[in-house]
Amino acid sequence: MFELKRICPEAISLALEKAHRYRLLNEPELAESICMDVLEIDPENQQALVMLLLALTDQFPTGPVDCFNKAQAVVPRLTDEYERLYHSGIIWERHGSARAHRGGFGSGPAAFGWLRRAMEFYELAEQLRPPGNDDAILRWNTCIRLCERFELGPEPEPVFAPALGED
Fold first, then answer.
1. How far is 131 from 146, CA to CA, in rounded Å?
2. Has residue 115 got a pLDDT over 80?
3. DSSP state of 63
4. Structural domain includes residue 148
């Protein structure tokens, strides 16, 4: 019915500033759209890829279910191994946090599992971090505090109790 219009390459910088502003205004769908416009003309733009990934994770609490898979699909397009590991951690952390906040049956063990997965990525990223960059450590600590705040833990082991039969 309608065709998308392309932005000009000279507009990329300003467009990314707007995407960042929309994220700050809690309008991640608008930020996502802008990033997609940028990536249409510059598919390898690392800033746009990171912003897209973050805009998708901003939608985890209330957005479409496919945001998780879309965010994960962005990771291989990041050219730096540290960035891939760190942002993989972000995806799992925000997924776990959204589940913990939503609550409901089974939310505790599910959220714990996702946060634990995030922590694995942060541990790997920590080994590759640039000097003076402790972001992976800060995120690791956030995961621990989320687990404490929501009293999250793994699924309890089932207790074996033999059935007592009548003889």
1. 27
2. yes
3. S
4. yes
Both tokens of 40, joined, read 């249409």
The answer to whether the Cα torsion of 145, 149, 150, 155 is positive or negative is: positive
Residue 4 within any structural domain of the chain: no
CA distance 64 to 62: 7
Q: What's the total number of domains in the chain?
A: 2
**Domain presence at residue 87:** yes
Alpha-carbon span 78 to 159, nearest angstrom: 45
Given this model, what pLDDT does residue 162 score? Answer: 72
134 has a pLDDT exceeding 70: yes
Any residues with CB less than 8 A from the CB of 154 and at least 6 apart, and which?
109, 112, 113
Work out the mean pLDDT of the chain and round it to a whole number.
95
Spatial separation of the C-alpha atoms in residues 146 and 142, rounded to whole Å: 6
Encoded tokens for 73:
């699909």
Residue type at 167 in one-letter notation: D
